[in-house]
Amino acid sequence: MVADASPKLPGISAQELLAKVQTAKVDGLSGTVQSSADLGLPALPGVAGGSDSPSGAVTELLSGKHTARVAFAAPDKARVSVLDTMAERVWTMDGKSAWAYDSAEREAVKLNLPAHQPGKPAAGTPKSYDPQSVAKQFLDAIDPSTKVDVSGTEKVAGRDAYKLRLIPRADQTTVGSVTLAVDSKTWVPLQVTVLPRTGKDPAVQVGFSQVSFDVPAASTFAFTPPKGVKVTEPKTPTTRPDRPAKPIDPKAVPGKPNLKAGNEPTVIGEGWSAVVLVRGAELTGANGPLDQLLAGAQQVQGSWGKGKIVTSKMVNVLLTDDGRVFAGLVTPQTLQDAAAKAPR
């Protein structure tokens, strides 16, 4: 997607490269991110962006291709502009306030943020459009069973990069391998490529097509709603400064599947076998593709109750009759095992 020829770089061991990428820090960056996903699933209610896990990294980009302009400045400034067909969605925060804007809906949401605690990352913008954040979620899944190697070099966004490859051996996961293109100067991941256990084509790829490591100007993170846009200002979040507020999603509008208030996603399990759990998902009145998907889904039952399993080459989803949604880069049986362990 954004890779060029293979450059010649000094040799480096997998452990040395892993240590560098895990400790990489930059004061700011900006650029254009391209992402593509071929998972065969439509958007599912409440699953997107629900966890700091490999599943959360992938389920926020369930299908199709996306282009986003991104900018980050440490410690609490971020902006993501997703370019849809004939529309734009913007999330931005300047350390004091956060905005979510959807040009198609002509609506914007503004939040006044609690005081930021030094050293804590900015929260609220979609992580799936930040290759560094996506990479971190896979790096956090590394356990003793994970094979790590350096599989070569490549050019990404015009920059020389090493290819750090993670190969999980856990039987529960559908992930075949994850390759991080790591910048040879800043050690920041420039691209993440996820391959399924079956097949050779990437299931997900997120990476920069253009990037600058200059700190963006403060004005980059300011937002003024266009004339005629409806602006909503919910009550100031009551979360503690060291706990990030739930991301704002301007697409969560009436008539679309959504979560009931107060039911935030949680994670069952760790590493490659992690499963995202969403409670209180409303599946009634869903859109056509979801109705068709559920109609052809496999009926299953167990000690956890009854439900349907939706499968794809990487993401599998269990939707229970009592409104719970279990999703992950795991086998269908792992989803049912997680459902059996989850308290009702």
From TrEMBL:
Gene3D superfamilies: Lipoprotein localisation LolA/LolB/LppX (2.50.20.10). Keywords: Lipoprotein. Residues 226-265 are annotated as: Disordered. Residues 240-249 have a biased composition (Basic and acidic residues). PANTHER family: SPORULATION PROTEIN YDCC. This is Outer membrane lipoprotein carrier protein LolA. It comes from Kribbella sandramycini.
